[in-house]
Fold:
Amino acid sequence: MGFLDISHVSKAYGAVQVLHEVDISVEEGEFIVLVGPSGCGKSTLMNMIAGLEPITKGDISIRGRVMNGVHPSKRNIAMVFQSYALYPNMTVAQNMTFGLEMHGVPKPERERLLADVAKLLQIDHLLERKPGALSGGQRQRVAMGRALVRNPDVFLFDEPLSNLDAKLRVDMRTEIKKLHQNLGTTIVYVTHDQIEALTLSTRIAVMNKGYIQQLGTPKEIYDTPANLFVATFMGSPAMNIIPATVRVEDGAPYAEITDARGHLQSLKFSQANMAEWNGKEIMLGIRPEAITDIDGADRKSQNIQRFSNIVTVTEPAGSDTFVTMTVSGRDVVARMRADASVAARDSFEFAVNMDKAVAFDPKTEARIR
Amino acid sequence: MSAVSQDTAVKTSRVAQVFIYLTLVLFALFYLLPLYVMLTNSLKPLSEITGGDMMSLPRALTFEPWLSAWATAQVGVSPTGLRPYFLNSILMVVPAVAISTVMGALNGYILTKWRFRGDTLLFGLMLFSCFIPFQIVLIPMARMLGLMGIAGTTQGLVLVHVVYGIGFSTLYFRNYYASFPTELVRAAMIDGAGFFRIFWRIMLPVSGPIAVVTIIWQFTNIWNDFLFGASFAGLNAMPMTVALNNLVNSSTGVREYNVHFAGAIMAALPTLLVYIVAGRFFVRGLMAGSVKG
Ligand SMILES: Nc1ncnc2c1ncn2[C@@H]1O[C@H](COP(=O)(O)OP(=O)(O)OP(=O)(O)O)[C@@H](O)[C@H]1O
Ligand SMILES: [Mg+2]
Structure:
């Protein structure tokens, strides 16, 4: 039993099934991020935790208490909405204490809690303003403040940063992370920004089409994605997926790929179990940062494979240079140091860190373990 | 046309502007003419009018016609003036407007924020009620009022107007609330506010414009209604419009045009007042609904 238990939860609108047997167990103090493309059911799951949508099948419990059918206000949760949902007719102070007032907290107590949270979020000078007179970032703080004063068991954030501009989003992201570290609250956080997911979470649930694709720590999700969907959804630029054939030579498995000139080249696998796939097609997954120039290769790696190919395009991006090439008919991106001397249309010797490579079954799309 | 310009506003030449304003002034005068005639003639002695001079200003200013229309003129069988009927109208219009507006607001709130199976159908039916001609319901309504024992009374009239008004007031509020973010209602639910608390504390405070629109609409319609008043009101509940008609028709001997004019202005005054007081909101309210919705 976890702190927040979502067990076998399904949701259907009429005949349309939008969530399938979702199973997540959240420990106290965890920061769980639900991430996935638009329409995959993140908000629906969130609303069911909050009690705003009825659960079609399964149970949701908080602190061991089954919450099915319990009114949202009786679940001891607080939610921060994408649009902030601040009451336009009330001042910031009234917005933040409305929930306390509804729960019958006496006025002196309300004011004490308000003062504490306002100080924490540095919005004490805004308390008498109406939401209309606040900037986006300030509204965001007030919305979080409204959630914080309640001191709930679980915080629910539904894409709280998606209305902010890029710079402010990064700042608020750090702020939310700090807040979580200082207060140790349990947070469920929805986003479709995979960077947000990787930086904030203690664990990530990657969702697609109403299914949980993978539930794990950011490192697990990033290094060992459960399937092709997770591999390509998480990470930017996305993981390169290259069709390859497995060949065993001298007992060791190799991935055979074709370079831009049409020549076969092979990369030795680090995983011995790939030998079982001898002669079969697989999908080879390599992150851009695992393909570098020879000098830039990861020194800790046990298995650096060389691979020469024609460079299609180079895209300098400040600290890194992204290099595009064609492998097995697909565009493949490599992430180089900015000072790597690489030019378009030239032949170049790449170093591939095969320790970080993963392989997928092309039929089931699952990672080969 | 000239070359592409940054300015997207329509430009008009001087001549066109003068022409437009001239036309507007002319039309304004045209529409003000009846008011002018009514006002001037209500302040003249009858002899000046029967002398054939309708358009001139009063030579001998008198308020006698106003006093007579208000307190002593013959209306139907009794020489009471319009005063008691004015009161009847007020007693009818205030509760009818209040009830239909409040119910419209509640309906709009439920139809947008507490959706249930069949709600669109229900709303469709309520909309339909806006288009039922008054004449069709006269006889069934009379029967209903009789069965309820409020035939001929002011309560009866209030009921009729509320029933007819709910369709429109619901339409107004529903469309206004449709653009009201549902997330706010959800936030309030999580905060622990119930059905009425959300309505009272979250929805109503931002409903000003649409409430004004509804009140003006309902007030004008109900105050100006003649058919229901003439059909359902007994002698003691007769509204202003019906009394005015009786005043005009029950003059003995000479027709006191000056008294009739004064009475007509009295009957029009409350709606005029509502427009002037709330008129600014009227336009703003309609815009708010149309731009957002
Ligand atoms: N009331 C409803 N009736 C029918 N289908 C619905 C209803 N509400 C949501 N859906 C469907 O459920 C699916 C999941 O919706 P949801 O809002 O949870 O997506 P999401 O993951 O939050 O997407 P986004 O990132 O765009 O917010 C969508 O395909 C949506 O069309
Ligand atoms: Mg969503």
